[in-house]
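=== RUN LOG ===
request id: a7f3
mode: sequence -> structure
chains: 1
length: 508
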Amino acid sequence: MGDVEEVVEKEAFPEVDAEYEDEYTDFKSQLRALVLSIARQLYCSCSVMMFPVLSQIYQHVKRETPPIEVDLDPDDKYFSIDEEHFAFIVFDRGLLTPSITGFIIGGILLRFIGRKYTIILTNFLHVVLLSYAFLSGVEEFYPYNLSLVNVFVRNIGYMSFFIYLAEITSPTFRAFFMGFYVLNENIARIKVDTARNEGKVNKMFRNVTVITSLSFLLAIFTPETPFWLTLKGNPEKAEEIFTWIRAGYSDVDEFNQMLSTIEDYSGDKRILKRILSRTFIVGFIFSILVILCDINPCKLMEVVLHDNYLDYDTQTQDDIDNLALIIDEPSKYFTRNKMNGVVFFLAFNFILPRKLFYVMSYSLGILIVVVIRYNLSSIETLMQFSSYCLMPPYLGTTALQHILAVEMFPTTLREIGLVARSIFNVFYLYADDFSTSPDGYFPLRWINRPLYYAQFFISLIGIPVLLIFMPETKTTNIYELDQVISDLPGEDFTSVDGENAVGESEEN
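=== RESULT ===
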């Protein structure tokens, strides 16, 4: 009897059962497509994930400096620097030319030979440089000329990394991959510091040479980005790669938007010029503002330490030794908690719009700096508090900066925009270096304090500007941002009757 009732129930609601079954099947297919899409995006990204590791090696392995003669004044507590530190500052200025040249050459290569082959080339050059360092028996210092080449190749790699990762990943998971980049960078920093302190630099070169060689081989089998292929007139191949990467987990509008964007830019030259000019100007202005608002907690800690805890007339040798230990071992207080910043970034990036997350992080950073400045009484408490509380928003904004660096420069001006932003960033960093010269254990000059307090107030002004005027990039993809920018207040040069709009503007 029970079996008969069960059969009757099943036959009574055949449509409902079929509907549930269809929904379940659709859910399984979407879940499978999601997992497969993430796996393929991760596979494509692996060829560039060694760049943050290489950057940390090139930056934090000691570099050989040319002999420099300098008159030292041991009684001048703000301006006196030892000969080694002065030589390093002069050497650092010598890196300016290869640094800028690397960005420019990187932009040219990305445009003309493509994203994929630029990555293959830079991976190959990294393998050559690392092999040379390993076979030469480098244990502590880079040769001077090798350091110059390293900076040049590294900056080409940075250009290709940002663009490739932005164009190969979906808008939904772009933040995840950029957070993975920041995590990779900070793990590498710990490894480099450990290898240097334990005298195992040459062994590190050997290991990284092997991993970079694998990245070079992997890059050969990774696909070109659909955007570059479409830009070069091969939309069929671009659609094939796009479909393979997304694995069915994507709205087709993303690919169609890319096609229409590039088609729009092949129209009237006068309208094209104005659209691209406006896009470039908006992206460049906001990217500069983002750089100027960058609150570096380590530098701010220097100011707070100097103002509150350093008294050259009363400090003992134990005070100096303790301070040196704290500053010389960043992994103890800062690096180990940078992972919190990545978690912080990933969590809030999926919840908040990009610019709101950015403003929230900066506001939190400023609040914490104020608390640190006026309420903490010991160096140990200061370092612990800043590492747990200040590093998460700082690292979160750092990861978001990498995303905005590409998203604020969409379409055909992406390479030019990144080159311009990177060069500005280089000059900003070098100007920052000029304001801080090593003074014993503690890098500080008299201008350090007003410089960073000025940066603090720039951030106060920049935060509402970013919140009000900055286009939101999270809800759009990097191909739709042109339309967002064109909708900002100003001249309407994107109307259907574009020629008339341009003509009327010129008459006015």
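=== NOTES ===
The chain has a mean pLDDT of 69.
The radius of gyration is 26 Å.
=== END ===
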